[in-house]
Amino acid sequence: MKRSGWFNITSLVFGFSFLYLPILLLVIFSFNESRLVTVWGGFSTKWYREMWQNQGLIDAAWVTLRVGLLSATIATVLGTMAALALSRHKRFAGRTLFSGMIYAPLVMPEVITGLSLLLLFVAIDFARGFWAVTLAHITFTMCFVAVVVQSRLVTFDRSLEEAASDLGCPPARTFFLITLPVIAPAIIAGWMLAFTLSLDDLVIASFTSGPGATTLPMKIYSQVRLGVTPEINAVCSILLALVTTGVLIASYITRTEQRRDQTTN
Amino acid sequence: MAKTLGPVRNEFSPWTDSDAVPFISFQNVTKRFGDFTAVDDLSLDIYEREFFALLGPSGCGKTTMMRMLAGFDAPTSGSVSLDGTDLTGTPPYRRPVNMMFQSYALFPHMSVEQNIAFGLKQERVPNAEVKARVEEMLSLVKLEAFARRKPHQLSGGQRQRVALARSLAKRPKVLLLDEPLGALDKKLREETQFELMDLQERLGTTFMIVTHDQEEAMTVANRIAVMDKGRIVQIATPAEIYEQPSSRYIADFIGDINLMEGRLTAFSEAGATMQCAGMGPKPEQTLTVQIECDTTGTLSPGDAGWFAMRPEKVRLSQEVPDGIDPANPVNAVEGTIYDIAYLGNVSVYHVKINDGFIIRATQTNATRLVERPLSWEDKVWLYWGADAGILLAS
Question: Domains in chain A, start-ordered, CATH in brackets?
Answer without folding.
Answer: 55-264 (1.10.3720.10)
